[in-house]
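Tokens for chain A. Residues wanted.
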């Protein structure tokens, strides 16, 4: 029987695609391949009886082609302050375990990543303001991602755009932005400079998006 879980978090994603990211529209990635870093600040949640409130996590992801073509590589990094029960819970959630098939973005990402590197437990800093389209997350000696609003190339003014996915398996609405990632991770993350950024709230369960 699948363990019941639910998680609310704030998310910042930086991938190597152009602003808007074709994946959001069932199209092929901008450059033919996909590399991404994702940071989460968990506001609340549980996995069975294990509470997940206040924890942080990072996902590192890379595919040689489009995500749906598979053969990807992923690595999960979990807040070192998590206890053993919480570490096990977050590891399972973020690798699509204890989840109904196709129900969450984490199930899909994991299914498309047969190459899984060892989960790391490290100090993680996360600060994300979805409405302001600003944020950052970092893991010492591994990576730092900084996100900001897209700017008008002529005037420099902040530009606001967002994507709404009423039937999405990751979010319902995401604010668009620009981000840069500096990484020395085991997974190479090329092309993450002034590229696609996504700021959004996550509310997921083992059955999918919670409205």
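Reply:
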């Amino acid at each position: 029987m699948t363990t019941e879980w639910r998680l609310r978090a704030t998310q910042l994603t930086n991938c190597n695609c152009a602003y808007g990211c074709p994946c959001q529209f069932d199209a092929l990635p901008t450059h033919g391949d996909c590399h991404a870093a994702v940071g989460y600040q968990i506001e609340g949640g549980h996995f069975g009886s294990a509470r997940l409130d206040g924890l942080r996590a990072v996902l590192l992801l890379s595919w040689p082609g489009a995500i749906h073509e598979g053969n990807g590589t992923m690595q999960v990094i979990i807040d070192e302050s998590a206890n053993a029960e919480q570490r096990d819970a977050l590891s399972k959630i973020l690798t699509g375990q204890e989840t109904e098939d196709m129900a969450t973005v984490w199930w899909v990402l994991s299914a498309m990543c047969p190459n899984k590197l060892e989960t790391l437990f490290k100090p993680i800093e996360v600060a994300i303001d979805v409405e302001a389209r600003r944020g950052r997350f970092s893991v010492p000696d591994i990576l730092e991602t900084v996100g900001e609003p897209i700017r008008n190339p002529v005037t420099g003014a902040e530009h606001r755009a967002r994507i709404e996915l009423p039937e999405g398996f990751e979010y319902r609405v995401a604010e668009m932005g620009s981000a840069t990632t500096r990484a020395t991770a085991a997974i190479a993350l090329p092309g993450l400079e002034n590229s696609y950024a996504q700021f959004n709230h996550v509310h997921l369960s083992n059955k999918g998006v919670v409205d």
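The chain has a mean pLDDT of 96. The longest strand covers residues 34-47.
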